[in-house]
Amino acid sequence: MPVSKGNKDHILPEILDLPCKPHIRSMDINFFTDPKLLEEIKKFTRTKKIKAGDAFISPGDKIVFVPIVLNGVLRIIRQGADDKEIFLYHLYPGQTCAMAINCCQSATLSPIKAIAEEDTEVLLIPANLMDDWSKFPEWRAFINNTYGSRFAELIDVVDLIAFSNMDKQVLHYLQERGKAGKTKTISITHQEIADELHTHREAISRLLRNMEQKNIVRLGRNTIELL
Fold first, then answer.
1. Range in 7-21, 59-73, 128-142 the model is least confident about
2. How many CB atoms lie within 10 A of CB 181?
């Protein structure tokens, strides 16, 4: 069924220009139950598929939508002005990014990068509907819970950086990547880890060899197995 002209008036042109699926079925959404909210979602949203390894949002992008993961996993990374990166958290089905919400509400550019860990599909909520949907208690609760959950994860990241040794940061990072990929064997280079933990490759290689000696990991060619 084509989208009516009335529906398009509520969808930002930037979203209409994206290579997205124009329809969403209620059965695809299992994290909202309010029938009126679901009807709005069916009318005014789009879905987009992202291939594993592709960047979905990049630093400096204008955020015109709030992405909610339908299936798959997104990795969220903070990238500084010097292009150095630090891993923040993952987004799983039914979750969204608090920073994307903040960018939509404050009309600021993206400070983060979102990368698909595996083939991923997201629901795109137009930014201009954010305030209007606050009339739905379930939507307000979803936004509040998102801020709470992501804030707690960011506190964990700060704690790891400020109060933990680098080996604990590396292990936490590998455990999170393994959890996101549903595997104990992670395909990754030492340089990639160094980039996302804002350190040097030599330091990561040295730590991983030490972790292997302690039977925490097993190192392979561009792979790391958690034991």
1. 7-21
2. 17
